Amino acid sequence: MARIIQKFGGTSVGDAERIRNVARRVVDTHRKGNEVVVVVSAMGKSTDDLIRLADDVSNGDYPREMDMLLTAGERISMALLAMAIQDRGVPAMSLTGSQAGILTTSEHGSAEILDIRGDRVRAGLTDGKVVIVAGFQGVDPVGREVTTLGRGGSDATAVALAAALDGDVCEIFTDVDGVFTADPRLVPHATKLDEISFEEMLELSSSGAGVLMARSVEFGRRYKIPIHVRSSFHDGNGTWVKEETMEEAIIRGVAHDASEAKLTVHGVPDQPGVAAAIFESLAEAGVNVDMIVQNISIEGVTDISFTVPKAQLATAVSIASQAVKEIGAAGFDVSENIAKVSIVGAGMTSERGIAARMFRILAEHGINIEMISTSPIRISCVVRGDDVNAAVRSLHDGFELADEPQEEKV
Ligand code: ASP
Ligand code: MG
Questions:
Q1: 246-410 is a CATH 3.30.2130.10 domain
Q2: Where are the alpha helices (DSSP H) in 59-111?
């Protein structure tokens, strides 16, 4: 007998029939003698719909009420799933994040899980029930307010619950077959990975691979919970995210991210404290700066470019224009037509010339690199937004990531 945590995303519970299908899978797992805890997302695109509805009703910024609103989405799917499971003769019970004892920090919309009490979950399991927990939500124990964990947060709920309950595996059911060598929508011959290490998955997730939320991978790594990313539509094996992988790949996959914009501050006086001043203001405003490049200094001035989420661009622009005045820079410009493409693989630590090969492949496809950043197992380049599809495809094929060699296009 194993203790299994299963998470079903929005598409998997998108309508009544799909909810019944999920119930069938959960019941199968339960009937095999396992203890099953299920985490669900809101049905289909209902979180987006609720956000749109709030925009239609009001122009204001009401983080507390947004969380009250958005947590309703997961409440609907959890209750419906509990009904469908009981229909099949298996006892089941749904719990909100707060009822499940998921304690978080107080930031509405981006709370972090601090602790999971899980008493009611354990009690339900002891009673032989399937316990269904609403994903993406918790409660701030100090203010006793309901919180959400940020978009895609149900993955984090699932892996954190698996850790807190000492689960044997966390299964993330999704609308794709697993983790691919690149986004299959861009690269149709991208290959499903059988396994990937936590470190590599973390880099892919933070570089734009949408299949797993980075924070959930972090939980998995910290508490050594293997994560099985698999399809909710069939029984086939998906991708195992775990500590050690059998084979070490030089490059495991290519990720891309078009959600950032680039700001360049021109004519920045090349003196100590100037960069600190700009980035302190951005940090104070909660802007997530990703890449930073400072050019060489000519005649005492330099340019600093950095990327921020497009969603935070307005804030970043107002800070940049303020900073330009304060530090006596020449001005700044903004480019929204950018995207980041990254290659990730633990094997690159022991292989030379990977960066050079990446740059050569991009060059051969006429793609200009605007910024570069690296980690020990990742190389990322910012390119023009219009070039990103070609960049992903050429890197995927240039590093021969497909299972089957691709025929040259003539
Ligand atoms: N329903 C939430 C969202 O759409 C959480 C999730 O799906 O994980 O972001
Ligand atoms: Mg989701």
A1: yes
A2: 63-87
pLDDT in tens, the chain (410 residues): 899 999 999 999 999 999 999 999 999 999 999 999 999 999 999 999 999 999 999 999 999 999 999 999 999 999 999 999 999 999 999 999 999 999 999 999 999 999 999 999 999 999 999 999 999 999 999 999 999 999 999 999 999 999 999 999 999 999 899 999 999 999 999 999 999 999 999 999 999 998 999 999 999 999 999 999 999 889 999 999 999 888 778 999 999 999 999 999 999 998 899 999 999 999 999 999 999 999 888 889 999 999 999 999 999 999 999 989 999 999 999 999 999 999 999 999 999 999 999 999 999 999 999 999 999 999 999 999 999 999 999 999 999 999 866 555 44
Which residues does a 6 A CB cutoff place in the pocket of ligand 1?
9-10, 41-42, 47, 73, 135-136, 151-154
State the distance from the centre of ligand 2 to the C-alpha of 211, rounded, in angstroms: 8
Q: Where are the domains of the chain?
A: 3-175, 246-410
**Which residue owns the Cα nearest ligand 1 atom 5?**
152
**Can you give the C-alpha Rg of the chain in angstroms?**
23
Ligand with minimal distance to 110 CA: 1
CB 193 within 8 A of CB 345: no
Residues 6+ apart with CB under 8 A from 284: none
3-state SS, residue 374: strand
Measured from the Cα of 48, ligand 1's closest atom is: 4
**Whole-angstrom Cα distance, residue 82 to residue 130?**
8
Homologous superfamily of domain range 3-175: Acetylglutamate kinase-like (3.40.1160.10)
Can you tell me which atom of ligand 1 is nearest the CA of 152? Answer: 8
Ligand 1 mutation target, pool 12, 48, 137, 151, most atoms within 8 A of CB: 151
What is the position in ligand 1's atom list of the atom closest to the CA of 213? 8
